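Appendix B. Extra example for self-study. Work through it before the problem class; the solution is given directly after the inputs so you can check yourself.
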Amino acid sequence: MTKNCIFAIVNIYQNILSAREQGKKLLAVLIDPEKMNVENIPAFFKKVHRSIATHILVGGSTDKDNQTENVVTAIKKATNLPVILFPGDVSQISHKADGILFLSLISGRNPEYLIEQQIKAAPILKDSNLEILSTGYILIDGKKETATQKVSNTKPIAQENLELILNTALAGQFAGKKLIYLEAGSGARVPVEENIISLVRKNLAIPLIVGGGIRSKEQLEIAFNAGADIVVIGTAFENDATFFEELKK
Ligand code: 1GP
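Solution. Structure tokens for the complete assembly:
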């Protein structure tokens, strides 16, 4: 019997929807298995737990040493926060996580990341208990060539091209995505602009994730106030874990 057809427990998405209804903003900490040493995870999570972080994302454009499984296992031991895979490809699926952003790179025109990787993932997900969160992933120019751009061999949309960004997000919603992710790319020099976030938020019925290049409390608040339901931060925590202190509960 296939687990995900019958027994999928819907709760990560329901919690995101409830938070949105209550005006509660969510912060996801992104952990890249290529950059996180498993031994450092318990100490890292002591800091995470003192902060306003609500979700953990695990993934990267690549995972050359196949560390995803080990990293997810260690994270699950260290926290009760929901752990969601944010995979660069089908090799980065761990059954030990709670959910998965089932991404389709809808800003790009590379069939490999629009549907091919998803077809490869389907038989693995069919037999898992992972909550599948269908996500329209939109790469926006963060003024730096990012790993996502290189690996996916797609071009980001210029920040000035508001119409294309909005129409891409709407197309994702109409195609049945549960979430839209506006991504400036890990380590972006410029995060997704406030006016883009507010335009997309105003026109979209589904929750909005924003990430890439957010390095300060001020930038986080700008993204939240503009309408991001979930903000994802990775690099800033990797570079300086004292940033968690600035984001105390
Ligand atoms: C990248 O949106 C995430 O996929 C987070 O980006 O690493 O720049 O915080 P940063």
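Self-check: The chain is about 40% helix and 15% strand. If your reasoning did not lead you there, revisit section 3.
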